[in-house]
């Protein structure tokens, strides 16, 4: 069930009505749990069983860990949770990838190994809810949190439909306490929630799908080499598309939760205004980057064991972060490039970080633009379907395909240029402020006009109802 569909609008209206009727809090939570299962089952009902399995295993494991002080037993219980969750994720998401790579390895040894046919469907959102339930077990193991007192609260934490299939990846200490007490959206929360839903759907339907998707598809779907201009503009289009698509989902999810009386953490903070790559990852997919930091980078040693080990930890974290996004070596390279960027940035900060010239406004702006351009190079590997396609686009971007053919019509060139410039301007204007602050300073008539315009554009945009890009992860 897509947020950008009429089916969801009807579903959401029913859920909102039931949640604001005078039922008991326990009944309302049951309604939300049933609604969450229905929401997920709209894609493929049998996959509900996987969510039930993760829920039951992590519920019992956490309580067993909490009741014992025997460290070896606690480790065994944690291992059960990790093996079940990563086992499910590995089988459905990486099984075919591992088989194909095993076939390639055997071929290098002269062994003709035939990969069995793999017809397993990837469950939507499996990477998100797997990481969320694993965080629960890990927090209990490290004694950062106690297990939930009520199974209903925990089951709802795992399946809460606004963020179930594409995040934000919510920590148990953030969401479970909200289910323990009565939550009711105030008038302000309801208005804010509906406003955020409108903004999120505008980003997805109008910008990502209506304007940028076709441009990116034309460039990345070209059979022949493209011109330098088209290669850059197609990549800029994808950079804007993936931001508008994923930030649009997160904003809509936060808005939906808010109309029900719940708060979800922010997942984006104007990342294309980042100055440097550590700043980018503090602003992009915040719930994943903090998850990787807290549950992978820091346990590996973080930056506490010298510069060499720090760089190794950074690289391992980003490589695994890339693999989390998809079962393909192009995603691993995408993550590896970010690891290299972060390591290089650390060296540069050690050398020049305290210099006065680095802090000048013009230098900061140039560093921000350099960050944006280098981020776009990584997006090539994220978007390309193969290495030959990725390297072909990179060659075109740097003018090494002299016979490149133009694929973008003039109107597309204008559209992507305008959208990219406006997006960068908005990100830089909002870099050190918040949407709440800007809204508070804006007259209500102007806000109403902007809101109405976004709604109008959402309605008139003739899209194909595309799924959100991050559903595949």
TrEMBL record:
Matches recorded under PANTHER family: ACYLTRANSFERASE, TEICHOIC ACID D-ALANYLTRANSFERASE
Signal peptide coordinates: none
The UniProt record lists the keyword Oxidoreductase: no
Family under the similarity heading: Belongs to the membrane-bound acyltransferase family.
Name of protein: Probable alginate O-acetylase
Assigned keywords, A-Z: Acyltransferase, Alginate biosynthesis, Cell inner membrane, Cell membrane, Membrane, Transferase, Transmembrane, Transmembrane helix
Transmembrane segments: 6-25, 37-57, 77-99, 111-131, 151-170, 190-216, 323-344, 365-382, 407-426, 446-471
Lineage per the UniProt record: Bacteria, Pseudomonadati, Pseudomonadota, Gammaproteobacteria, Lysobacterales
Record organism: Marinicella sediminis
EC class name: transferase
């Amino acid at each position: 069930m897509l947020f950008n569909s009429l089916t969801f609008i009807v579903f959401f209206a029913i859920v909102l009505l039931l949640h604001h009727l005078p039922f008991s809090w326990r009944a309302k939570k049951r309604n939300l749990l049933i609604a969450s299962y229905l929401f997920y089952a709209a894609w493929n009902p049998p996959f509900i069983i996987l969510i039930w399995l993760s829920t039951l295993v992590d519920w019992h494991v956490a309580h067993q860990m909490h009741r014992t002080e025997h460290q070896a037993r606690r480790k065994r219980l944690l291992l059960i949770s990790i093996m079940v969750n990563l086992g499910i994720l590995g089988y459905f998401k990486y099984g075919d990838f591992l088989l194909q790579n095993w076939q390639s390895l055997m071929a290098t040894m002269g062994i003709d190994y035939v990969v069995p046919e793999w017809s397993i469907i990837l469950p939507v959102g499996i990477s998100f809810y797997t990481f969320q339930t694993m965080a629960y077990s890990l927090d209990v193991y490290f004694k950062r949190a106690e297990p939930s007192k009520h199974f209903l609260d925990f089951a709802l934490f795992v399946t809460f439909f606004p963020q179930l299939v594409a995040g934000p990846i919510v920590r148990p200490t953030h969401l479970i306490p909200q289910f323990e007490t009565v939550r009711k959206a105030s008038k302000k929360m309801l208005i804010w929630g509906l406003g955020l839903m409108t903004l999120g759907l505008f980003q997805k339907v109008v910008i990502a799908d209506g304007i940028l998707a076709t441009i990116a598809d034309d460039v990345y779907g070209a059979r022949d080499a493209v011109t330098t201009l088209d290669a850059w503009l197609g990549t800029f289009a994808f950079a804007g598309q993936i931001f508008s698509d994923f930030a649009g989902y997160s904003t809509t999810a936060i808005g939906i939760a808010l109309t029900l009386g719940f708060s979800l953490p922010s997942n984006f903070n104007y990342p294309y205004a980042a100055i440097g790559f550590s700043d980018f990852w503090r602003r992009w997919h915040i719930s994943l980057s903090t998850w990787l930091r807290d549950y992978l980078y820091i346990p590996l040693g973080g930056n506490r064991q010298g510069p060499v080990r720090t760089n190794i930890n950074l690289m391992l974290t980003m490589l695994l972060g890339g693999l989390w996004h998809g079962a393909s070596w192009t995603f691993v390279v995408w993550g590896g490039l970010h690891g290299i960027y972060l390591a290089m940035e650390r060296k540069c900060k050690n050398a020049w970080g305290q210099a006065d010239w680095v802090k000048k406004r013009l230098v900061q702006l140039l560093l921000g633009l350099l960050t944006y351009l280098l981020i776009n190079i990584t997006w090539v590997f994220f978007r390309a379907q193969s290495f030959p396609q990725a390297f072909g686009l990179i060659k075109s971007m740097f003018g090494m395909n002299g016979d490149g053919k133009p694929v973008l019509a003039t109107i597309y060139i204008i559209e992507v240029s305008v959208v990219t410039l406006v997006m960068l301007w908005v990100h830089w204007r909002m870099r050190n402020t918040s949407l709440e602050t800007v809204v508070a300073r804006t007259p209500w008539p102007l806000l109403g006009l902007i809101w109405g315009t976004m709604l109008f554009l959402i309605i008139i945009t003739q899209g194909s109802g595309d799924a959100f890009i991050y559903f595949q992860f």
